[in-house]
Write a structure and sequence with these properties.
mainly alpha, 57% helix
Length: 124
């Protein structure tokens, strides 16, 4: 995946995280569910009630598919528009396969004790 493909995904993730209502709903769902993570379906249910956050989440998932899928057997190219033209059950399957790779696309902001770090080693 190129940076050109990765950048829209990062931008959409930032928009979703910046949506205060979405973040509050995720936090509440985690507390009430007794778990630190939500399924894709739970996140979609939350986003569906959040107006623009739903659109952002849909765009994020579609962008991830376009970035990761090299080709498919449908009669149209792998594009953001093309994602909307495949059957719903196939789209669900693609999202399920692509979703675990989302975290790998984001930069790692964890502290590092590496003495070769350009900003010096971190002690935290």
């Amino acid at each position: 995946m190129t940076e050109r493909q990765r950048r829209p995904i990062k931008r959409l993730q930032a928009q979703l995280v910046a949506d205060a209502d979405f973040a509050a709903a995720i936090t509440q769902a985690k507390r009430s569910g007794g778990t630190d993570s939500l399924t894709d379906e739970e996140e979609m249910r939350i986003a569906a009630g959040m107006g623009s956050a739903f659109d952002t989440l849909e765009n994020l998932n579609d962008s991830l598919i376009v970035a990761l899928v090299a080709g498919w057997s449908y009669g149209h190219p792998v594009t953001l528009d093309g994602v909307q033209d495949i059957p719903g059950h196939d789209l669900d399957a693609l999202r399920k396969e692509c979703a675990p790779l989302m975290r790998q696309l984001m930069p790692d902001f964890e502290p590092t004790p590496d003495p070769e770090s350009p900003i010096g080693p971190s002690t935290a």
